[in-house]
Write a structure and sequence with these properties.
The protein is an alpha+beta fold. Helix content is about 25%, strand content about 35%. The longest helix is centred in the first third of the chain and has 14 residues.
Length: about 150
């Protein structure tokens, strides 16, 4: 392989490797939740991280496949999670707003089913997820905070 070909391959790898998948759990996003008493809360009611996002015990970033990234499939979706009050585990996930790509929606659904919250606090949570190709961030983000623990 000549040096010109190595440069082109190197540039392509540098462009496609850094990726970000994030969920907006900050107050400015469309995140919302229903507490154990049935009261709906909106993220815009809180400064900083919404209380239901502070109660997350386990998160898993959605898979953002190479194929989806290579075709620049990006988008934001909104997903409604129904929680088991006793365990804090997710019992159902619905697409409220699609990312625009079935593979990205499916990836988000699969990951969100594995999330877990502190038991006894929340019945339902709306989680926005954004898939984007980025040179600066990697992983799943809730606002500007890393979602992994």
């Amino acid at each position: 392989m000549n040096s010109h070909a190595r440069t082109i391959v190197g540039c392509a790898v540098a462009f496609f490797l850094p990726i970000a998948v994030h969920g907006q759990g900050r107050s400015g996003g469309v995140s919302a939740a229903v507490d154990a008493q049935g009261v709906r809360h909106r993220g815009s009611e809180y400064a900083g991280l919404a209380p239901w996002m502070k109660d997350v015990l386990k998160t898993l970033a959605p898979d953002y496949s190479y194929t989806e990234r290579a075709y620049y499939h990006t988008g934001s979706g909104l997903f409604r999670l129904t929680l088991d009050l006793k365990t804090g585990s997710v019992t159902q996930v619905f697409v409220v707003k699609s990312t625009g790509f079935p593979a990205l929606d499916s990836s988000a659904l699969d990951a969100l089913r594995r999330w877990r919250w502190k038991p006894g606090r929340w019945k339902e949570i709306d989680v926005p997820i954004t898939f984007e190709v980025s040179r600066y961030k990697r992983g799943m983000y809730i606002g500007s905070s890393p979602a992994w623990r």
